[in-house]
């Protein structure tokens, strides 16, 4: 069992890194598509070796630490961001159980009964990587960018947490696998079983908050080049900068997986009851990754379509719009569940 988990951890971490690496390539291609350009096409056929070239460039660039920086905190900052981005992949249920070598292989490293709380907790710690790195840089513009990121994440995590509570109320569990199984199939007694159909407002709030949590446009105010030079990582270079940039793409991959699990059935898909065994497991994994890649594309699409918010607009949206909407949706959902269970009879 321990060996199986170790192999699964290595596979998931490696897959997360490869997908994040090639997300940079596809983001450039998507941007080129929207802007009527070609995009990467020099490194390898169709530019497919561009991510490898970027990685080699990062490793070969000069690795420096500013003279008045706090050395150890300066090193810890990007490490924390990368660690928190990767660690959440361990509790994602990637598919139904596989049967291999005479044993069941669970495609989930750890099924915590409070899995969704674990994810929210780890994501909230991720901002410390930004704050520590910016403060240790001894650069006021980096610190301004980190403060923006902190205030942004605090405001949007509240609305995100309320949205998660709504899903937990409907499911009756904090386990990601239980949430996935509660959306089994696609059609049940004439109603769609994916949470997005019963909670479209909750999905919209959660998706917007996810964009803000990822520091992605139109909420990338911690990296406003026109106002803050390069943002919180202005003083970073080489692979320390690479870790910060890479963590964003790993987080985008994991966030897309969480959105797929909470609202789109995870590894569930229409007609899954017609399959069983390893065929069901493989198709489930394919279904989950298809949903993940779709949301990665949508996040990239939004980045190259919408203009950046002003900071006051971003705070207004978080505190005065999304939080009230999420609370009202939570209250309505609670009343509907109460009526269904006959609590008012």
Verbal overview:
The chain has a two-stranded antiparallel ribbon with strand order 1-2. A hairpin with a 2-residue loop joins β1 (98-100) and β2. The model has no long low-confidence stretch (mean pLDDT 87). α4 (115-136) packs antiparallel against α5 and α8 (200-213) packs antiparallel against α12 (311-340). The protein has twelve helices and four strands. It is mainly alpha-helical. It has one domain (64-340).
Q: From the alpha carbons, calculate the radius of gyration and give it in angstroms.
A: 21 Å
Query: How helix-rich are the residues, as a percent range?
Result: 55-70%
* Helix and strand element order: HHHEEHHHEEHHHHHH
Strands of the biggest beta sheet: in what spatial order? Answer: 1-2
Q: Provide mean pLDDT, rounded.
A: 87
User: Number of helix segments?
Assistant: 12
In whole angstroms, the N-to-C terminal distance is 49 Å
Number of structural domains: 1
Major beta sheet, specifics?
2 strands, antiparallel
**% residues in beta strands:** under 5%
Task: Chart the SSEs and their pairings.
Blueprint: H1 2-34, H2 50-60, H3 71-87, E1 98-100, E2 103-105, H4 115-136, H5 140-171, H6 176-181, E3 187-188, E4 191-192, H7 195-198, H8 200-213, H9 225-228, H10 238-263, H11 277-303, H12 311-340
Antiparallel strand pairs: 1-2, 3-4
Helix pairs in contact: 1-10, 1-11, 2-10, 3-4, 3-10, 4-5, 5-8, 5-12, 8-12, 10-11
């Amino acid at each position: 069992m321990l060996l199986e988990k170790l192999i699964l951890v290595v596979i998931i971490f490696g897959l997360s890194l490869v997908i994040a690496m090639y997300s940079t390539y596809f983001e450039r291609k998507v941007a080129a598509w929207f802007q009527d350009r070609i995009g990467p096409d020099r490194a390898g056929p169709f530019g497919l070796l561009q991510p490898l070239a970027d990685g080699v460039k990062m490793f070969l660039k000069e690795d420096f630490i500013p003279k008045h920086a706090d050395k150890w905190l300066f090193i810890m900052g990007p490490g924390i961001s990368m660690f928190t981005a990767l660690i959440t992949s361990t509790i994602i249920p990637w598919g139904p159980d596989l049967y291999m070598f005479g044993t069941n292989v669970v495609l989930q490293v750890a099924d915590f009964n409070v899995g969704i709380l674990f994810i929210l907790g780890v994501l909230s710690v991720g901002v410390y990587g930004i704050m520590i790195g910016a403060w240790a840089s001894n650069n006021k513009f980096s610190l301004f960018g980190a403060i923006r990121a902190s205030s942004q994440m605090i405001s949007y995590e509240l609305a995100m947490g309320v949205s998660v509570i709504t899903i937990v109320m409907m499911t009756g569990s904090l386990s990601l696998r239980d949430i996935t199984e509660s959306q089994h199939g696609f059609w049940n007694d004439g109603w769609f079983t994916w949470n997005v159909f019963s909670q479209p407002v909750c999905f919209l709030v959660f998706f917007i908050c996810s964009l803000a949590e990822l520091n992605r446009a139109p909420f990338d105010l911690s990296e406003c080049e026109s106002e803050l030079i390069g943002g919180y990582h202005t003083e970073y270079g080489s692979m320390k900068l690479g870790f910060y940039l890479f963590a964003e793409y790993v987080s985008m991959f994991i966030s897309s997986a969480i959105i797929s699990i909470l609202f789109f059935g995870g590894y569930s898909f229409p007609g899954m009851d017609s399959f069983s065994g390893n065929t069901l497991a493989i198709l489930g994994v394919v279904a989950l990754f298809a949903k993940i890649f779709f949301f990665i594309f949508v996040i990239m699409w939004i980045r190259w379509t919408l203009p950046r918010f002003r900071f006051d607009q971003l705070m207004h949206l978080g505190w005065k719009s999304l939080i009230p909407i999420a609370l009202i949706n939570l209250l309505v959902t609670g009343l509907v569940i109460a009526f269904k269970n006959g609590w008012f009879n």
